[in-house]
Amino acid sequence: MPRPAEQDAGSGSSLSRGLALLDLFTSPDQVLSISEIARRSGVPKSTAHRLVLDLIEWGALERSPNGVSLGVHLFELGSLVPSSSTLRDLALPFAHNLNEVTKLTSNIAIREGNDVLYVEKITTRTLKVPHSRVGGRARMHATALGKAILAFSDPEFVDSVLSGPLLQQTEKTVTDLRNCVGS
Q: Is 1.10.10.10 the CATH number for 5-77?
C-alpha cells in the first residue's frame, strides 16, 4: 500500500513533491506518462514535467518509450537499508527451509505502521503468489503474514489496527470483525 501521493504532491517543498510522485508507482514494471503523473498527483503538467526531469537526472526514474518507470538508483539505495537487510540475512535460511518443507511460497516481512512490508519472497515453481512482492506493502489485517504478526503483537497495537478502517484488499479480506471466528 503506497502512501497517498495524491494528497502530498500538490504542496510542500520540491523534494516532498518529487518523492510523492515516486509513490505513484505501485508495481515494478509500471510505466507512467507525464500526463498520468500530473493527473494522479494533482500537480500542473509543467510542474510534473520539471519534477520528473529532476528525478530522471538523479536516477530515481528512467525514460521508456511510453513514459517513465522507477530507476535503478532506488534499488541501489534500498539495498543499503540496514533494518530490512539484517532481518533478511537472519531470516533467509529459515524461509528457504520453510519453502523446501512446505513447497509453498514463504515471505519475510516487517511491520511498518499498520502494514506488512515484504523484504524477501521465496517462491515455488508450481505455485505463484501474485499479491506479494519484495518491497510491496499489504494491510496487516488482510494477509496471513500480517495476522501472524498481529497474533504476537502488543494488545494496544492490535486494538489500534482493528479499530481503524479495515479496507477490502481482496474479495476474501475480512472487513467486519463480527465475521471473525471467536469474536
A: yes
Supply the pTM of this predicted model: 0.66
Residue ranges of the chain assigned to CATH 3.30.450.40: 82-166
Helical packing angle, 34-41 and 45-58, nearest 10°: 110
Average pLDDT of every residue of the chain: 84
| Bridge-based pairing state of the strands 61-64 and 67-70 | antiparallel
- Classify domain 82-166 at the CATH topology level: Beta-Lactamase (3.30.450)
Contact (Cβ atoms closer than 8 angstroms) between residue 131 and residue 122: no
Specify the pLDDT at position 8.
Answer: 47
* Overall size of the chain counted in residues: 183
3-state secondary structure the chain: CCCCHHHHCCCCCHHHHHHHHHCCCCCCCCCECHHHHHHHHCCCHHHHHHHHHHHHHHCCEEEECCEEEECHHHHHHHCCCHHHHHHHHHHHHHHHHHHHHHCCCEEEEEEECCEEEEEEEECCCCCCCCCCCCCCEEEHHHCHHHHHHHHCCCHHHHHHHHHCCCCCCCCCCCCCHHHCCCC
End-to-end CA gap in the chain: 27
Residue range 151-155: average pLDDT?
Answer: 93
Q: Can you give the pLDDT at residue 120?
A: 87
